[in-house]
Design brief:
The chain is built from two helices and four strands, in the order H-E-E-H-E-E. It is an alpha+beta fold. The protein has a domain of 69 residues. The protein is extended. The model has no long low-confidence stretch (mean pLDDT 77). It comes from Oryza meridionalis.
């Protein structure tokens, strides 16, 4: 991912796309040696490395703007809150079966 930040390849994709099928990466396509150095996976989709850079930047901007708080917990997320039949939220993983 660091290579994407320092010198990304944005003029071509990691996957040698087939333009006869709209620029998508096919199972038989030739792939690049280091996909972290590419901004695009195929003609339309950003690479995982580029997506991580985008997500990191958005999150950092949201934290600095006070829109979200950084996670300072124990690493264990709280149980999901489920509303059953319009009632109050509970921590049940699934609503109880109806009689």
């Amino acid at each position: 991912m660091l290579s994407t930040r320092l010198s990304p390849t944005s003029h071509t994709s990691c996957c040698d796309v087939d333009t006869t099928v709209g620029g998508l990466c096919l199972p038989t396509a030739q792939l690049c040696d280091d996909c972290t150095a590419f901004v695009f996976w195929d003609a339309y989709h950003t690479s995982d490395a580029a997506n991580q850079v985008i997500a990191d930047r958005l999150y950092a901007d949201m934290v600095s703007a006070g829109a979200v708080q950084p996670c300072r917990g124990t690493g264990t997320p709280p149980p999901p809150r489920v509303v059953v039949d319009g009632g109050t939220p509970s921590t049940h993983a699934a609503p109880p079966p109806k009689p």
